[in-house]
Amino acid sequence: MASITEIIRDDWLRRPWWMSLIFFFCLYMTFIYMPFDIFVKPVAEDHEIWFGFTLTGWAAKLTEPFHWLIYGLGAYGFRSMKAWMWPWAGVYAAQVVIAMIVWNLINEKGGGPISAAVAGAIFLVPCIALLRAREEFRGVRPEDERMGDE
């Protein structure tokens, strides 16, 4: 029987390392952060960001299930490398790029134009990578086929 470390390592190798990072982030958000955010965090402390605009209170609380659904679908899609993930993972990542730029420009806690440019550029990297990863979402990768030959 495989150890948990072996299971995680084998799963990590199913996709490019950067995509595995996104997958594990989606798992964390789906099973740890979003349940806390929805069920534990008081409404008065809730903040959700959509396209760079901050929702607070009940507006935030009522939109949290949409973020939960997005992260859950991301976890499922990256786990199985579902074909429908392309281009949708990249489209969502583009929304994050927009959100990082807009939030830094319009929010009083934002860092202004320089922070907007830096944050946008940082999040543009995975966005472009996801939009260019069409072949990764096309079923079994050669590495997976070799694993079955053993």
Question: How would you explain this protein's 3D organization?
Answer:
The protein is mainly alpha-helical. Among the domains are: 42 residues, no CATH class; 54 residues. It is 69% helix and 5% strand. The chain has a two-stranded antiparallel sheet with strand order 1-2.
Short description:
The protein is mainly α and 150 residues long. The protein is built from 6 helices and 2 strands, in the order ααββαααα. It is 69% helix and 5% strand.
Trace the largest sheet across and list its strands. Answer: 1-2
Strand percentage, roughly?
A: 5-15%
Which structural class fits the helix and strand makeup? mainly alpha
Helix content: 55-70%
H and E string: HHEEHHHH
Spans with pLDDT under 50 lasting ≥5 residues? 145-150
Cα-to-Cα separation, first versus last residue: 16 Å
Number of strands: 2
Average pLDDT score:
92
Shape: globular
- Helical element count? 6
Radius of gyration: 18 Å
Biggest beta sheet summary: 2 strands, antiparallel
Essential attributes:
2 strands, 150 residues, globular, mainly alpha, two-stranded antiparallel sheet, disordered C terminus, 6 helices
Give me the secondary-structure topology.
Elements: H1 4-12, H2 17-39, E1 47-50, E2 53-56, H3 57-80, H4 85-106, H5 113-131, H6 142-148
Antiparallel strand pairs: 1-2
